[in-house]
Amino acid sequence: MRRIAIAALLACTLAAEAPAQPLQVREIGSLHVGGRIAEISGLPEQEITFSPGAPPLRINPNGQFQVEQMYAQYVRLAEPRARYPLILAHGGGLTGVTYETTPDGRPGWQMAFLRAGHDVFVTDAVERGRSGWARFPQVFPGEPVFRTMGEGWGLFRVGPGDGWNIDPAQRRAFPDSRFPTGAWNQFMMQAVPRWVTTDRQIQAGYDALVQQICPCVLLVHSQGGNFGFRAALNAPDKVRAVIAVEPSGAPPESQDAAALKEIPHLVVWGDYTSENPFWQRIRSNIDRWQAQIRAVGGVADTLDMPAEGVRGNSHMIMMDTNSDDVAARINTWLERRGLVR
């Protein structure tokens, strides 16, 4: 594993020294997959003026609606080196913007993996971003959850939980934090409402995408972790590998992992998980799932950045100042697994 890290580090150094060449792109596009038609009835009509100066219209909110679809944007290279497209799945309260750019304006993992030779699909899960909402509680049970600006400061391990302050000058980050803390407010502009009642619908969206575009490799983050693990279980003939970046959930202990024997898994961890009780519990659960995969003869590797001698990575590791280094290490793992030419 040490040789992998050194090779990835050398690749990053050489890439930084050489001028970036323009990408040769074959196609950019998008698609929606999955979803269903829902019918709503019994709601009162409303009179709405859509634009200043326009006459009001009587609107009947009842009828049929397309709901629970999932959006993905793709970039296909003229000559990809990866054998299969890479699906990037975000975490809770976020969208595909997670991978498009960093809060301080550097290219995100979408560009990093395109430059590494992958066709890339960036997703917005059901009820996020360009996938769109549906009425609640008529379609989505319950109400959306909104993340405060301070919640993620401790939860995402940028700094101690009590280190958040509305005044940027008063915020306390971990001394070696690699998150660009000066851009925290910019990062929070990416936050969107989420539901905690839509796992089934989100899973159906990812399963539909796998059926439509795969064979493929899944790279998933945080809440997206469980959807990636489950997508591989649901379509072991189509998923070639799963990279789970700080996944927050895993299938239960009762789940048979035999279907994953031929699907290599890599779990990536940042720093400060051992000091955080919430993340200790999560890591224990993920360790258990990796052990289940190994028990059936499968591959379940771990890239632990502190164990590699790299301190300070946050939960948003794809936005940290060493994000290109982490992406290179992941790509090296994919090369070792024969998934990059």
Automatic annotation (TrEMBL):
<dbReference type="InterPro" id="IPR029058">
    <property type="entry name" value="AB_hydrolase_fold"/>
</dbReference>
<dbReference type="InterPro" id="IPR050228">
    <property type="entry name" value="Carboxylesterase_BioH"/>
</dbReference>
<feature type="signal peptide">
    <location>
        <begin position="1"/>
        <end position="20"/>
    </location>
</feature>
<keyword id="KW-0732">Signal</keyword>
<protein>
    <recommendedName>
        <fullName>Alpha/beta hydrolase family protein</fullName>
    </recommendedName>
</protein>
